[in-house]
Amino acid sequence: MTDKESYIRWQNIRITQFGFANNLIIGLSIAQIGYIVNFIQSDNLVLNCLQKKLFWFGGGLSLVSIALGIFVVFNRLEDFRLTAKIAKNRESNIIESLETDRNKSTKLGKKSWNAFIWQTSTFIIGFLLLLIIILIELKSTIT
Questions:
Q1: In this structure, how many other beta carbons lie within 10 angstroms of the beta carbon of residue 42?
Q2: Which domain holds residue 79?
Q3: For 55-103, what is each residue's pLDDT tens digit?
Q4: Of 27, 1, 8, 2, nearest in space to 87 by CA
Q5: Which of 40, 73, 130, 142 is buried deepest, with most CB atoms within 10 A?
Q6: How many angstroms separate the Cα of 23 from the Cα of each of 67, 68, 97, 129, 130?
């Protein structure tokens, strides 16, 4: 296997894993919202002021995580479309917009990675805040 083939193979794996990780965080964020909504619907549950604030902030961060994940999906689709255009133009020896398109593709890629980092961060922070609600409520049960 040549260096070029190895790079192409690993680039394909990276692209696939990035999509998988993005979808995983979206799915976990949706499940997180579903779980906490189900948790607060208990008949004998009374949330204190701190728990209510944590619920709204943590739930809001989970929604932001989902929105960022959807943004990543659309941004990556635009990047793939542009990359296909670059490849087609390169094969056809159309070089007028090649450098501009490459720069735009690079920016789209960076934007995807930054959004993914924010998506993951908002998911983790939201998870921790919602976990605090549950731990406060179950304090007497687990201690």
A1: 9
A2: 3-142
A3: 999 999 999 999 999 999 999 999 999 999 998 988 888 888 888 999 9
A4: 8
A5: 130
A6: 12, 11, 33, 22, 21
Residue 57 Cα distances to 25, 53, 60, 81, 109, angstroms: 18, 6, 5, 36, 29
Cβ atoms of 75 and 108 within 8 Å: the answer is: yes
pTM over 0.85: yes
Using CA atoms, how far apart are residues 31 and 25, in angstroms rounded to an integer?
10
Q: Which tens digit of pLDDT belongs to each residue from 13-34? A: 999 999 999 999 999 999 999 9
Neighbours of 54 (CB within 10 A): 22
Segment 127-132 long-range contacts (CB within 8 Å, at least 24 positions apart): 127/28, 127/32, 127/58, 127/62, 128/58, 129/54, 129/57, 129/58, 129/61, 130/32, 130/35, 130/36, 130/54, 130/55, 130/58, 130/59, 130/62, 132/54
Q: Do 130 and 59 contact (CB within 8 A), yes or no? A: yes
Tell me if residue 41 falls in helix, strand or coil.
Answer: coil
Tokens matching residue 85: 């255009």
